[in-house]
Write a structure and sequence with these properties.
Length: about 350
């Protein structure tokens, strides 16, 4: 394998990573939603029991506002919700629906199909429908609302500022065979999220290059020829010597010495955009070896751990894994905060 010393990047001003969409930027997590009204929380979210939070306040003109920008999906009177508004939102590629219930009779100000801005008044707090006192019942659903309210999540987890928090998912108490099946599949399935900071594209002032990080020398030896082959399939007349390993760790070199692979000589933005997701999936086994892994437990069973999600991503991934693996008890797939 051809090795080159690590070069200092002098073209930082030319980086267009965000523009290219090669990296997953910090997701607008909890701060994308705001409290929809003022008052005291009198009832918390209880999974399977109470599907939102209740916020109570006195006075005849307590405004109820949109928690985030979106489109009104329902605005009507319900025997249970009373005067209610539903709003659909798409934030960082994730779909949500919020519900604002028990508003004051005749106070609704929005209609179906209308676009509303975060903080825009929807009506006033009331006690219509199945209600015993003036309050707002506020629900947040990850995806769309349904009769079973199976997509309901705790709104308080999405209000405030938790952008710096990193989340993990555990698939617990499974067999060795199941763990061996899940690890490579999940590495590939979520490589676009978990490998976004390890395999990414950038401008090098001439064309584009792709960096593959978080690997060792032994892995680099395996990755370089495969990366050369894949790049040749996208870049006409590609010079394979422009894909090479770069020593990051100290000498002497051994199998575990830290390395990167640099794929240079990519001519167009489209070529780079085509290659990045291919690399993320193809080399997930190497770069995600620590982020998606199996672990033996003291009880003789195994667990699979995935680490490096935002809150919203963790919610989606947890539900997807549970749905795709009906043989695993639902409670054995859960999320947690890493930091």
């Amino acid at each position: 394998m051809k090795l080159k010393s690590l070069k200092v990047l002098v073209t930082l001003s030319l980086l267009v990573i965000g523009l290219l969409g090669f990296r997953t930027t910090s997701t607008q997590a909890a701060s994308s939603f705001i409290m929809p009204t003022t008052g005291t929380i009198t009832q918390q979210f209880i999974p399977g029991v109470h599907f939102g939070i209740d916020i109570a306040n006195g006075g005849s003109s307590v405004a109820v506002n949109a928690s985030a920008t979106g489109t009104v999906s329902r605005s009507y009177y319900s025997s249970s919700y009373g005067e209610v508004v539903f709003i659909k939102h798409t934030i960082s590629g994730v779909n949500y629906e919020t519900v604002y219930a028990h508003m004051k009779s005749g106070s609704r100000t929005v209609s179906v199909g209308q676009t509303v801005q975060q903080g825009q008044r929807l009506g006033y707090m009331g006690s219509t429908g199945d209600s015993t006192g003036q309050h707002l019942h506020f629900e947040l659903h990850l995806g769309s609302w349904n009769d079973a309210k199976s997509n309901a999540v705790n709104p308080l987890n999405y209000i405030g500022s938790t952008q710096s928090q990193i989340y993990g998912i555990t698939v617990d108490d499974i067999s060795l065979a199941k763990a061996q099946q899940l690890v490579p599949n999940l590495q590939k399935q979520y490589s676009g999220i978990l490998a976004a900071d390890l395999i990414y594209g950038m401008s090098d002032g001439i064309g584009y290059k792709i960096i593959i990080k978080g690997i060792n020398h032994q892995q680099a030896v395996q990755i370089v020829p495969r990366a050369q082959y894949l790049t040749s399939g996208q870049v006409p007349n590609y010079d394979t010597s422009l894909t090479y390993g770069v020593q990051i760790g100290p000498s002497p070199i051994n199998d575990n010495t830290a390395y990167e692979v640099h794929v240079t000589g990519i001519r167009t933005l489209q070529e780079a955009q085509n290659l990045v997701p291919q690399f993320q999936s193809e080399f997930a086994w190497a770069v995600l070896a620590t982020r998606v892994r199996g672990e033996l437990k003291s009880n003789g069973l195994y667990k699979v751990v995935l680490e490096g999600f935002t809150l919203q991503q963790a919610q989606v991934v947890r539900n997807e894994i549970a749905a795709q693996n009906p043989d695993i008890p639902n409670g054995n797939v859960y999320g947690y905060i890493l930091n």
